Amino acid sequence: MEKPSEAVRQTTEDASRVFRLLFVEDDPADLELIQRELRTGGVPFQGEVVSQPEGFFKRIREASFDAVLSDFRLPGWNGMDVLRELRGLGLEIPFLLITGTLGEEKAVECMRLGASDCILKDRLGRLPIALRHAVDRCELRERQRRVAEELWASESKLGLLLSQLPAIIWTTDGQLRLTSLTGAGLASLPEKAWQRCALDKQMDTSHPAVAAHRHALAGESVEYENEIEGRAYWNRVEPFRDVSGETSGCLGFALDISEKKRIEMESQRRARELRQVNETLAAMVANAPVAIVAMDHSGSVRIWNPAAERMFGWTANEVLGGTIPYLPSERENEHQVFREILRQGGSISNVETQRRRKDGTLLYVSLSASSVKAGTGNEDASTDLETIAVLTDITSRKQAEAEKQRLSTAIEQSAEAVMIADTEGFIRYVNPAFCAISGYSPTEAVGQRTNLLRSGRHDDQFYANLWNTISNGQTWRGEFENRRKDGSPLPMEASITPVRGPRGAITSFICIAQDISERRTLERQLLQAQKFEAIGQLAGGIAHDFNNVLAAILGMAELGQLEAPEGTRIRERLQKICHHAGRAVALTRQLLAFSRRQQLERRPTNLNFSVNEVASLLGDSLGKDVELETSLSLDLASVFADPAQIEQVLMNLCVNARDAMPSGGRLAISTANVQLDEDGCRTRPGIAPGEFVRLTVTDTGTGMDAQTLGRIFEPFFTTKPPGRGTGLGLATVYGVVKQHGGHIDVVSAPGEGTSFQLYFPVTLPATPRQETPADREPVSGGKETILLAEDHEGLRELVCESLGSLGYSVLAACDGQEAIELFRRNSGKVDLLILDVIMPRLRGPEAYKRIRELNGDVPVLFCTGYNSDSTQVEITSGHPVLQKPYQARELARTVRLLLDQRSQPAS
After folding, report:
1. ∠ CA(506), CA(509), CA(510), 5° rounding?
2. According to the model, what pLDDT value does residue 674 have?
3. Which residues make Cβ contacts (< 8 Å) with residue 106, sequence separation at least 6?
C-alpha cells in the first residue's frame, strides 16, 4: 500500500496527465462505450482510431502513444495480429485487449505475447484502472532500465571503491557460483581457505553460508558469522537484482572480527583507512569537473566544491551554512517540487533547468539529486536526511542546440531551394522552398536520385563535369535547365558544395538553388525594351531629318499653288505633291509615335468615350461575320491622355484583330480599374505601383507564335502580304502607350486568338492648351524683321520665301552661332527669333540664352521634329514650339500672333 503522500502525488500527476491512446476498433458503438467508460473513470485522453492494418502501421510509426486499446475481432485481422505487429516493431507500448468473449487459451496466449491486460466488454468498469496500471508498469520498467544503465556506467568507479574497502565482497549467480571477489580483506585470508569454503550444491544445506545465500535468493537479507582458518568473520548476504528488479544472485559482505585483543589497534587502523577514504572522497569532490552541492535537512549548504565556485561565482565561504544562492525567482516552484521528491526519499536524474550565476546571468544545467542518510542513528529520519546534488553546465550544449535549431529553421524558411544528397547521388533532404519550386513533396523526393529534376537540355558531359568538380572537393556554381513535376521548365541558378565529415572525407553535398524563371523573363523584357529604344532612336533620327525635307517640299508646293493659275496642269501636279507629301507626314508621325517624340495634347480623359467613339467609327468595316462586344466599367477613373492618340491605338488594334479573323469571330473591348503592387510591376518594367486603367482588346483570331510575339512592335514588321500594311500599326500603339507612361501585355498562341492589355496610369491632370481666337483668324503679314536659324537649306529657303511674301524682312542663319553674329550686327532691329532646336555648332535653346544676354525683350519661336526636345524647351524657357513638318499658313499665323503679343502694352 502506498504512503499517503505518495498516493496524493500519484493522484495529482494522473489528474494533470492526458493519455495519448490509439484505438484499434471498427465498431463505432463499442468505441463510444470504451471512451465513455474512460471519461467516467476520470482518465483524460487524446485518442486516434484506426481499423485497418495500413492505418495502424502508419500511425504507430509516425506518432507516440501511451497505450494501444484493441478489439479482438477486426475485419481481416484480429487483436493478436495487432499485438504481434506491435512487438515485432520492438515497441513496448502497453497493449490492452478488449473483447466480447475470449477463451482462456486465447487469453493466456495474449498475455504470453506481451498483452498488458484483457478486458471483457461487459466488464469495462475496470478499464480505467487497468489502463493506469499498464502505463505505470511500462514507465516503471523504463525508469528501471535507465537506472540500470546509469549503474553500469558507474561500474568501474564502484569497483575501484569496493576494492579499497577493508572487507571481503563477493557476488554469486543464481546457482551460488562465485562470480566476483574483491575487497581489501582478501589480503589476510589464504586462497585455499576460501576455496574450501566455496559454495556449491554438494555442501550441507544446514551450513550457515549456504542457508544465508539461499535466503538471499528468496529476497531476504541475512547476517551470520563463521570461522575460516581460525579467523572469525561477520557476514551479510543481500539479494542481487538485475535491471528488471528480479533476483539473479547474491551480494556478500564479510568483516574480519577475530582480532578482539587488538581492538584498539584495529580501531586505529580502521580510523586511518576511513580517514583515507574520506580524503579520497574529498579529493574526488574537490577535483570533480561538475558542481557538487550537499544540504542538510534544514536546507543549509554543507558541501560546495571548487567546480561549484567556478560555475556559479560564489566561494565556499560565502555559501556554506546558508541557503543555496543560485536559484532564480522564476524557478522557486520547481525547486519546491524537487525538495518534496527528495524529502520523500526519491531522486532526480538529469533534469535540464536554469540556475543563476553571481553576476546575475543565467546558465543551463543538468541536475541530478538524491537524498542520503547521515548515519546519526536517530530514529527520526527527518533530522539526519541530507541532499546531494550534482550540476553539470550544459549552457554550451544548449546554445549549440539553439544554433542548430536556428540553422534548421533558417533552412526550412529559406526562400531558396535547399537539397542535400549523399555521395551516391541519392536525395536525403529537401526544404519547403524546394517542394514549392519543383512540385515534389518531401516523401516523393527523398530517397530518389538527383536526376529526378533533369530536363534533358544538358548532355552527359555537362553532368560529368559537374560531378567531377564536387567530387574533388570544389564548389560548383552555375545555371541549368531542370523540369518540375508537371513537366514545365525550371531554370535554376545553383551552387553545390561538398560537406566534409570530422575526418575530412566528403559525406554529402548541399545544393542551394533559386528559380530564375522570373529573372529570365525580366532579362528578355529588358532586351526587348533596349531593342525598341534603339529602334526608336533610329526612327526618331530619321523622322527628324525627314521632317525638314517634308517641310521644305510642302512649303514649296504651297507657294507654287499660290502662284500657279487655277485649272492648269502645274497646279494639279502641285496639289498631288501636297497630297503625297501629306501621306509622308502621316508616316513620319507614326515613326515619331513609336519613338515617343510626337507632340501630344493631353487632358483628363475617360477611355470609355474613346472606346465608344471607335466602336461607332468601325461600323460595317469589321464585316458582318465579326461580332463586336464592349464591357465598360461604369466607375472608370480618368487618365491624362491625348484622346486622338488613344483612338488611333484602338483603331489599329481593332483593324489588326479584324484581319486576324478572316472567317469571322468575336472582338471584345473592355475597360477596368486595377491596382498594381510591387509584384505586379516587377514583370512590367517602366511603371510604378499604383492605380491604373486597363484597356483590353481580345479577338478569337489565328493568334501568334512566340517568335512573332517577340517582333510585333518593331517598325515595318508585318505578317500581312505586300500592300496590306506598312507594319507601323503596332509600333505606333507601343510608342503611344509608352509615351503615356503605360505598359502593354500581350497573350497569344496559334489558333487561340490574341489579347492586348493596355495599362494607363491614373494621374492628376494638367491644364490642356485652349484654342485662342487668333487660331481662327486669317493669315496676315507685316513689316517686322525676323531672324531665322535653320540648318536645313531647303527649309531655310522656304521660310525665307514664305515670310518674305508676307512683307517681313528675314535674316537667315544656318546654325546657332551664325544667328548670334547676325543678331549682334543688327542690334535693335530684330523683332522675332525663329530657332531650330537641333542645329550644328550651337543648339537653338543655347543660342537664345546668349541672345537674351544681349537683348532680353526679343520673343522667340522654336521649331523641332522631336517631341522630347519641345517638352524640354517648354519647361526651361516657357516659349512656344512649332512641330515639324508645319505648313506655311501655320507658321505665318504663329509669327503674327507672337509679334502682336509683343506690341501690346503690359497690363
Report:
1. 140
2. 92
3. 72, 80
